């Protein structure tokens, strides 16, 4: 890992950010709200978040190995922090836009289903069924988006904790702190890791429960 690696990754992340912003602008202005654009927007955003995470990992390794001087470290810290902020902002904006358009589509479908003279016919039933599926789709998409955001933030926090832990252990060894205290620090780090992965597991269980509940409601509405 070297500064050249950071210099090579940074333009790619910036390019992904600019592309995501361009597609989001098209979507917000109503120039293109197709399914294809929505899928491409989500893919570009995921690439951008992955590239930001990779940049942060490379910088952390350079810091740990002391392969970067203080002035360069500050510059790259600021650049990567800005990219992290941009990725969070983009994720929130895209989630709001997709949620809004999906809700509008569902409301339109509901109006058609309840105002149609074929309300009690097979066509009306199909329209209502489609509306219910779209509601489920929105809820699941929203849950997945929140899950991605939570996992992304947890990974960043975990990397920060590892970096702080390593610095603390290095400082402790230099100061000659007892082995028992270092062992306590190690145990605390293990507890922190268990809490992080426990939160991820709990979040996953909550989303699975939401999905099963929506599926149950759909079956109940279908029977009615």
Automatic annotation (TrEMBL):
It comes from the Eukaryota. It is found in: Golgi apparatus membrane. It is a single-pass type IV membrane protein. GO terms for biological process: protein transport; vesicle fusion. Its main location: Golgi. One of its GO terms (cellular component) is Golgi membrane. The chain crosses the membrane at residues 194-218. GO terms for molecular function: SNAP receptor activity; SNARE binding. Keywords: Golgi apparatus, Membrane, Protein transport, Transmembrane, Transmembrane helix, Transport. InterPro entries: GOSR2/Membrin/Bos1. This is Uncharacterized protein. It comes from Cryptosporidium parvum. The lineage of its organism: Eukaryota, Sar, Alveolata, Apicomplexa, Conoidasida.
